[in-house]
Amino acid sequence: MLLQNKRVAIVGGGPGGLTLARLLQLNGAIVKVYERDFNKEVRVQGATLDLHDESGLAALRAAKLIDGFKRNFRPGADKMIVVNEQAEIFFSEHEDTAKSESEFGDPYFRPEIDRGPLRNMLLESLHPDTVVWNSSFMSMEKQNHGWLLHFGNGNAAYADIVVAADGANSKIRPYITDVRPFYTGITAIEGNVYDSEKTAPNIHKLLRGGKIFAYGNAQLLIVSSKGYNDLAFYTSFKTGESWAKNNGIDYSDKAQMLAWFKKEFSAWSNIWYELFKNAATPFIPRPIYCMPLDQNWEAMPNITMLGDAAHVMPPFAGEGVNMAMLDALELSDCLISGKFNSLQNAISFYEMQMRNRATEAARESLDNGEWMHSKEALNKMLAMPFGQ
């Protein structure tokens, strides 16, 4: 095996990094995951994740974790309601019998799981002390045939192979390539509401434990239910790249955020106000970036990357986590299958197929982002097959 007696450092403990660690450990590799979170108890924010049969679920099957996933996913959380800015319902999957009867093995079944349970399931599958918490990556330098990594807590660690799984703002990516992402012209604001049945009852009732897609005035608002009656929401719109930094809004001030929403989303119903009145602070601005579709680089023998670190893309096709977990599956196979006579050849093959896949997913995500933020977004959504 190419990894015989070699130490693998995975920087980043998201779904992609943890899936890779699990797959490598199943094959006897020596793995450490370096995660910047202080410990495993840190609350995971963000919407639920829908896993696809050919990518995210395929990785879990290979990792022997599909039964755990079936115990932790939330039935019905994938059911979608399409509304306009006045919260008038134009389509609901809650009344779709075929959707209700879909199940594992159906290529169109995309079960949802909260980020926290998914992370906990992956963490519990790893050997004790695999994850080194409170390890914010700072820099690394070549040492022998590998790398010496330095972390913000003052610690250092040697690895023969480094895998960047540290997200869109990866600090390791520049060691591989100087290709940078471009701004897509769209910015999102993320918020989270806890105990929404009490704090946002109107939205909670409309949500019905699933997802809301609201379109109006070339603006988009997505609401996703979570466990414990919590919800996450994202409102997105076209604006300049520097808007998030230069708008003067205090994202920790709910009154300011509500005033902004009332002004900029003036055509929208006041039903949406309870999201901003009751969200946990701070809100999170997210300018949306994408890697160039033609990105390329020369493969290295001891460093590679996966997930957003390799191919950040807009979230409008639901491919982010699925691409990351499929990256983990394909990278692990290249490293442990015995198909390649050197690490560089294995990494080169992985990166080539990863870039090809990511390009197609990113192109779809970019296209979706454009029409979702157009005046005709609602009609285009309803013209899709599920809306017939």
In short:
By secondary structure, this protein is of the alpha/beta class. It is built from 14 helices and 17 strands. It has two domains: 7-44 and 115-180 and 293-369, FAD/NAD(P)-binding domain; 182-290, D-Amino Acid Oxidase, Chain A, domain 2, CATH 3.30.9.30.
How many individual domains? 2
What is the assigned CATH homologous superfamily of the largest domain?
FAD/NAD(P)-binding domain
Order of adjacent strands in the largest pleated sheet: 5-4-13-14-15-12-16
Q: What is the averaged pLDDT score? A: 94
Largest sheet: 7 strands, mixed
Uncertain runs: none
CATH class of the largest domain: Alpha Beta
Question: Structural class from helices and strands?
Answer: alpha/beta
Tell me what the CATH architecture of the largest domain is.
3-Layer(bba) Sandwich
The best one-word shape is globular
Number of helices: 14
Assembly state: single chain
CA(first)-CA(last) distance: 52 Å
How much of the sequence lies in strands comes to 15-25%
- Kindly provide the radius of gyration, computed on alpha-carbon positions and rounded to a whole number of angstroms: 21 Å
Strand tally: 17
Helix content: 25-40%
Overview of the structural elements:
It is a single chain. The chain is an alpha/beta fold and 388 residues long. It has 2 domains: 7-44 and 115-180 and 293-369, 3-Layer(bba) Sandwich (FAD/NAD(P)-binding domain); 182-290, D-Amino Acid Oxidase, Chain A, domain 2 (2-Layer Sandwich). Helix content is 34%, strand content 24%. It contains 14 helices and 17 strands. It has helices at residues 15-26, 56-62, 66-72, 97-101, 115-124, 196-199, 201-207, 243-246, 254-264, 273-278, 308-311, 320-336, 343-372, 377-382; strands at 7-11, 30-34, 49-50, 80-84, 89-92, 112-113, 131-132, 137-143, 146-151, 156-159, 161-164, 182-193, 211-216, 219-225, 231-238, 280-290, 303-305. A 7-stranded mixed beta sheet has the order 5-4-13-14-15-12-16. The chain has a 5-stranded parallel beta sheet with strand order 7-2-1-11-17, with helices on one face. It has a 3-stranded antiparallel beta sheet with strand order 8-9-10, with no helix packed on it. The longest helix is centred in the last third of the chain and has 30 residues, at 343-372. The protein starts with 6 loop residues before the first strand and ends in a 6-residue tail after the last helix.
